[in-house]
């Protein structure tokens, strides 16, 4: 497996720095190799290649970002041997998790919650559900705008005929899962699950605490 620093020049980009690295993959800041003195930096996300999941993530993210003010824009996807690389808009202020739990600054929660709900409203109008809304997947742009990113769990919530798709099983991140997800053998709707998770994010922003790590019956 190549590092992002090794991959970037193979795809025509200059690597600048790594942002995050973990089991899900790695994210770095890169810029296009050209003669333009005003080079725009973008984010490069690399994950282990999984053709079906990567195509679903890219198509869902691309559809969701069309005409959206509160969704991270995605530009391209490349497959390099065992890795898939996504190129997307860079949110220079980092993610909301860092702002909530690692910054001494007060969080403008009213402003950011309005942005989050506007972003979800846009996603759902496109029949896309995110299924992993949490502070780590919400990003802040240079002009203090919150944007939804990381569409690894996202999918369509309707069939080609316009019928709603009911889901089952546990999806998302513990602590942000709606109660119906945790009911064994239950089938549940996608949009309300995103709204529940947004409510947990609001609690995070106001209190700088998580209400629970994992929801239980009690």
From TrEMBL:
Q: Which domain of life is it from?
A: Eukaryota
Extract the GO molecular function terms from the UniProt entry.
ATP binding; protein kinase activity
Q: Which SMART domains match?
A: S_TKc (SM00220)
Q: Which PROSITE patterns match?
A: PROTEIN_KINASE_DOM, PROTEIN_KINASE_ST
SUPFAM superfamilies assigned:
Protein kinase-like (PK-like) (SSF56112)
Per the database record, which ranges form the Protein kinase domain?
13-218
Entry's transmembrane regions:
none
Pfam families in alphabetical order:
Pkinase
Protein name per the record: Protein kinase domain-containing protein
Upper lineage is: Eukaryota, Metazoa, Ecdysozoa, Nematoda, Chromadorea
């Amino acid at each position: 497996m190549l590092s992002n620093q090794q991959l970037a020049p193979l795809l025509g980009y200059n690597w600048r720095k790594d942002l995050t690295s973990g089991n899900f993959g790695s994210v770095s800041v890169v810029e296009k190799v050209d003669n333009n003195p005003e080079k725009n930096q973008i984010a490069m996300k690399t994950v282990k290649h999984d053709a079906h999941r990567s195509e679903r993530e890219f198509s869902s993210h691309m559809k969701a970002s069309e005409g959206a003010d509160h969704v991270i824009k995605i530009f391209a996807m490349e497959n390099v041997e065992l890795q898939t690389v996504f190129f997307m808009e860079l949110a220079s202020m980092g993610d909301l998790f860092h702002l909530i739990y690692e910054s001494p600054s007060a969080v403008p929660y009213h402003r950011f919650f309005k942005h989050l709900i506007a972003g979800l409203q846009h996603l759902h109008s496109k029949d896309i559900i995110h299924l992993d809304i949490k502070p780590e997947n919400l990003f802040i742009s240079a002009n203090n705008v919150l944007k939804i990113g990381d569409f690894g769990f996202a999918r369509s919530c309707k069939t080609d005929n316009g019928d709603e798709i009911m889901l089952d099983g546990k999806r998302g991140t513990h602590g942000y899962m709606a109660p119906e997800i945790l009911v064994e053998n239950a089938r549940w709707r996608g949009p309300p699950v995103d709204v529940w998770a947004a409510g947990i994010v609001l609690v995070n922003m106001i209190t700088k605490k998580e209400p629970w790590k994992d929801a239980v019956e009690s």
